Amino acid sequence: MSCFGCFAPEADEDVKPAKPDDSSSPFSISVRSLFGWILCLGLLPDFHWETGADARRKVAPDVANGYAHSFTFKDLLVATGYFNEANFIGEGGFGKVYKGKINGQAKSSAGVIVAVKKLNPESVQGLQEWQSEVNFLGRLSHPNLVRLLGYCGEDRELLLVYEFMIKGSLENHLFRRVSQEPLPWNTRLKIAIGAARGLAFLHSSEKQVIYRDFKASNILLDSDFTAKLSDFGLAKNGPSAGRSHVTTRIIGTYGYAAPEYVATGHLYVKSDVYGFGVVLLELLTGLRAHDLNRPSHQQNLVDWARPFLAGRGKLTSLMDQRLGGQYPPKAALQAARLANRCLAGDPRSRPAMADVLAALEGIEAMQAPAGAKGSHRDLPPRPVSRPSPYRDSSMPR
């Protein structure tokens, strides 16, 4: 489970100070120094372990060639108000996530709001994911990847520091904000395009990366709904030359994992494309990939939706009813057909992410300009109550 999936949908930037009974001298971190490190993000290849008589752990990443900022545990205690529960914003298998503020030395500095992910000391999986995150995000930089600003590996404390994404996760906006207006069509399309750019970048990087856990809770949104991929704890390097896949322990999220990976443990680059297809389907339908609250034949979104993905006559049955019909039918149909291609059972039949991105950008371009007759581009969704989480029983099984 992604820690970031629990972010409040509309988080503010207020960070609560330490509790009154906390006693330590004030400590500040230079914002100028921090950003200097951010600009130099690079590979952190090796981790070395020390053991002493007290059996405490210490992690020392080799930062000779790369340069995410190394924080002390005291730095992050102060930044989060001593992990004040008022700053708690998420929790997952790795541990807890807190909002924090890295203060500047100058009194006029407003500081930098960050998200601090803190390892559960008892979690073996968390340690592995911490190493993976530092390795991958330490050497990768792209507008559609969440920035890793720094890390801490001190004694039994393992933490990661990220840029703070004020709009939270896509999961929150699609499934948890019952009392709020649903995401408009164009915002959904923008999110799909941003996520596709991030995933296409990973697949085309010099050292190809398979993300492995592409899902709505791992897509974070900034103030203007630009999508950024987060949580690289399960990411894997792509297959070596001459090989089509990597074989690995089956791990991920039910409903998003590609069938060939679930059946064999063989992980392909195209396995990520399947996960993207599931998220695209969630954006179209407003329904979760898997939901035990739906009737048995509708619990798996992909299985339920397949009959509706190819035919235009069935499009209205597929689309999120909260949109109130406020979407361009041709564009929505093309998006549904693209999702169907991404969800092909044979990974060889799925498009590459670069082609998926090109298709989505084409869908965006085909929409009528804002203000044109019949345009749905800037219309908000019609105010409707959220429908039942499943369709009526007359739909095909």
From TrEMBL:
Residue segments, region Disordered: 368-397
GO cellular component: plasma membrane
Any one GO MF annotation of this record: protein serine/threonine kinase activity
PROSITE patterns tied to this protein: PROTEIN_KINASE_ATP (PS00107), PROTEIN_KINASE_DOM (PS50011), PROTEIN_KINASE_ST (PS00108)
Protein name, UniProt field: Protein kinase domain-containing protein
Keyword Kinase belongs to the record: yes
Pfam family, one: PK_Tyr_Ser-Thr
Binding of ATP, residues: K118
The Protein kinase domain, residue ranges: 83-363
